[in-house]
C-alpha cells in the first residue's frame, strides 16, 4: 500500500472514531433565545425541550423583577434524544433584553458573547498542543422573538437582527401568535418579510442549491421559507382531547393546540431545529460565519497568543499587535458534533 493510501486510511479511521464518539457522547448544539420580557420565551423553551428548563419568573417580587430587567446571558444544558440520536443541547436565554429605553448595551452584550465563543475557537486553533477538553460553545442558531403588534418590525428589531445576522443564524419568530386572527397573522408576516427585504436583514432563509440539492430538500426548504417568520405558541398545559394527550392553550372561544400545524408553526420549527436542519445550521456556523469572523480578525493584524500548554485553562488570548500577519499559523478546528 502506498504512503498516500496509508494516510488516507488513517484519516478515514480517525473520522469514523470521531463519529462514534460523537454518537456516544451526543451531538452538541446551541440555541440562543432573544426577545423582550413577556413574550413567552421560557414557556417556549420548556415546550421545545419537553422539560422545565427555565422556571417561570415571579414578577410580583420587585427585587427579582428588577434583576431580570438587566440583560444577562444565561446558558442551560439539556440532554435530549431526537430520532434516536443523543443531543447535548445548550439553550441560552437573555433575560432583560429590550426592556430598557436604550437597548444598545443589550445588543453589545449579546454580540460580545457570540464573538467571545469564536475567539475561544480561534485561540484553540493556534495552540501548539490542543486541549482535548476544549468546549466549543459557538451559538448555532438565534431565535429572535417578535412581539405580535400586528404592525411591522420595530427599529430595535431591525437594528438587532442586522447586527447579529452576520454572526449567527438568525431565525425570526412571531411570539404568542394566538393573540391574532389568522388573517391578521398572515398580514403581519407579510409586513415583517417586506421589512426584512427592504432593510436587507441577513436571516437564515433556508437557502437551496438547485444543482446540488435534490427535489425533496428544495421542496422542504421552500415550504419552510414560506413560513417565515414562524408563528409560535407555547404551553406546558396538557389535556385529553379525543383520547389523545395534547399541549394546548384553552380560551372561552376554543382550544389552540401547540403541536397542530394548522394552529401554529411550532411543530415544524421544532423538527427543523432539532432534526432536519440541525447539521446544516452547525455547518454554516463553522464553515461560513466563523470563517468570515476569523478572516476579519486575522486581517486586522491580531496577534494570537496561545495559552500555556500546561495547566487546566482551555483558552488562549487574542491581542491587537498592529502587525499584518498573525504570529502563529492557524489550522481549522474540526466541527465539534
Note the main attributes of this structure.
Rossmann fold, GTP binding, Septin, coiled coil, three-stranded antiparallel sheet, about 325 residues, disordered C terminus, single chain, six-stranded mixed sheet, G_SEPTIN_dom, alpha/beta, P-loop_NTPase, disordered N terminus
Structure description:
The chain has 337 residues and is of the alpha/beta class. It has one domain: 3-Layer(aba) Sandwich (Rossmann fold), CATH 3.40.50. The chain is 40% helix and 19% strand. The protein contains nine helices and eleven strands. It has helices at 3-25, 41-49, 62-68, 104-125, 155-164, 182-198, 215-227, 266-276, 278-299, and strands spanning 27-34, 74-82, 85-93, 141-146, 170-174, 230-231, 238-241, 244-251, 254-257, 302-305, 317-320. The strands form three sheets. It has a six-stranded mixed sheet with strand order 2-3-1-4-5-6, sandwiched between helices. The chain has a three-stranded antiparallel sheet with strand order 7-8-9, with no helix packed on it. A hairpin with a 2-residue loop joins β7 and β8 (244-251).
Compact summary:
With 337 residues, the protein is of the alpha/beta class. The protein has helices at 3-25, 41-49, 62-68, 104-125, 155-164, 182-198, 215-227, 266-276, 278-299, and strands at 27-34, 74-82, 85-93, 141-146, 170-174, 230-231, 238-241, 244-251, 254-257, 302-305, 317-320.
Amino acid at each position: 500500500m502506498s504512503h498516500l493510501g496509508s494516510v488516507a486510511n488513517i484519516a478515514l479511521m480517525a473520522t469514523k472514531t470521531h463519529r462514534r464518539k460523537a454518537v456516544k457522547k451526543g451531538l452538541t448544539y446551541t440555541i440562543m433565545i432573544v426577545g423582550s420580557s413577556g413574550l413567552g420565551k421560557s414557556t417556549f423553551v420548556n415546550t421545545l425541550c419537553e422539560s422545565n428548563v427555565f422556571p417561570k419568573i415571579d414578577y410580583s417580587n420587585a427585587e427579582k423583577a428588577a434583576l431580570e430587567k438587566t440583560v444577562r446571558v444565561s446558558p442551560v444544558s439539556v440532554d435530549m434524544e431526537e430520532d434516536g440520536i443523543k443531543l447535548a443541547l445548550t439553550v441560552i436565554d437573555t433575560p432583560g433584553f429590550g426592556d430598557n429605553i436604550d437597548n444598545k448595551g443589550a445588543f453589545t452584550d449579546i454580540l460580545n458573547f457570540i464573538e467571545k465563543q469564536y475567539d475561544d475557537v480561534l485561540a484553540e486553533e493556534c495552540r501548539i498542543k490542543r486541549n482535548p477538553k476544549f468546549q466549543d460553545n459557538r451559538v448555532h442558531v438565534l431565535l429572535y422573538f417578535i412581539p405580535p403588534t400586528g404592525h411591522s418590525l420595530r427599529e430595535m428589531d431591525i437594528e438587532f437582527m442586522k447586527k447579529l445576522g452576520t454572526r449567527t443564524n438568525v431565525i425570526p419568530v412571531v411570539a404568542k401568535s394566538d393573540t391574532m386572527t389568522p388573517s391578521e397573522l398572515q398580514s403581519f408576516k407579510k409586513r415583517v418579510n417586506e421589512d426584512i427585504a427592504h432593510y436587507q436583514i441577513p436571516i437564515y432563509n433556508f437557502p437551496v442549491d438547485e444543482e446540488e440539492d435534490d427535489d425533496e430538500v428544495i421542496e422542504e426548504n421552500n415550504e419552510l421559507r414560506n413560513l417565515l417568520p414562524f408563528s409560535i405558541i407555547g404551553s406546558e398545559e396538557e389535556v385529553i382531547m379525543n383520547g389523545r394527550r395534547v399541549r394546548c392553550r384553552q380560551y372561552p372561544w376554543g382550544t389552540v393546540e401547540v403541536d397542530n400545524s394548522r394552529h401554529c408553526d411550532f411543530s415544524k420549527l421544532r423538527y427543523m431545529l432539532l432534526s432536519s436542519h440541525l447539521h446544516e445550521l452547525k455547518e454554516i456556523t463553522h464553515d461560513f460565519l466563523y470563517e468570515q469572523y476569523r478572516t476579519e480578525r486575522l486581517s486586522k493584524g491580531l496577534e494570537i497568543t496561545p495559552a500555556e500548554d500546561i495547566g487546566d485553562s482551555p483558552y488562549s488570548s487574542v491581542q491587537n499587535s498592529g502587525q499584518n500577519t498573525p504570529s502563529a499559523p492557524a489550522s481549522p478546528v474540526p466541527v465539534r458534533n
